[in-house]
From TrEMBL:
Coiled coil region boundaries: none
An example Gene Ontology biological process: regulation of DNA-templated transcription
UniProt keyword annotation of 4Fe-4S present: no
UniProt keyword list: DNA-binding, Membrane, Transmembrane, Transmembrane helix
Record has Disulfide bond as a keyword: no
Species, as recorded: Enterobacillus tribolii
MF GO annotations: DNA binding
Family matches, as SUPFAM superfamilies: C-terminal effector domain of the bipartite response regulators
Protein name, per record: DNA-binding winged helix-turn-helix (WHTH) protein
Superkingdom: Bacteria
Sequence intervals crossing the membrane: 125-147
Signal sequence, renumbered to the chain: none
Top-level taxonomy: Bacteria, Pseudomonadati, Pseudomonadota, Gammaproteobacteria, Enterobacterales
């Protein structure tokens, strides 16, 4: 999954369903459905207008045909409310009877993830363990020499 920088000051983490304001560390935990919707909107932003049918199919699958406009409207309202709490107003704009469109005035960019960060973290733990073991062994040797 990806992380996105929104409006130069908020990081959206798809994995944890969180949006964090980098200026004040305020974080909002979104529901899985809201996060899925926001991810779909961000990924399809370059395509222009995202039609209602596209959204409902992406979110509800084949049941999307039977989902009322009110469900989608409520979901988009809650996402807007979450974003507004973080200082992001009008990330997407409703196009009447068509769908939504991402506001080009608000920049969104993917954040490159460090692919080796997990391995580096593991190596640090191994090195710390080895260092600790070495220091303990040196302490034992020093204690042995001191006693004898």
């Amino acid at each position: 999954m990806t992380h996105y920088l929104i409006n130069h000051n908020c990081i959206y983490n798809e994995d944890s369903h969180e949006i964090k304001n980098t200026e004040n560390a305020f974080t909002i935990k979104m529901t899985a459905m809201r996060a899925r919707c926001l991810s779909f909107i961000i990924e399809n932003a370059p395509n222009g207008i995202i039609e209602k049918e596209q959204l409902t199919t992406a979110l509800w699958g084949s049941r999307g045909k039977y989902v009322s406009d009110a469900n989608l409207t409520q979901l988009l309202y809650l996402i807007r409310k979450d974003l507004k709490t973080l200082g992001i107003n009008s990330l997407f704009i409703t196009i009447p009877r068509q769908g939504i469109k991402v506001n080009k005035q608000i920049p969104i960019s993917p954040i490159e993830e460090k692919k080796n960060s997990f391995l580096l973290g593991r190596w640090r733990l191994v090195l710390i363990g080895m260092l600790t073991t070495s220091l303990l062994a040196l302490g034992a040797v020093a204690e042995f020499i001191h006693i004898n």
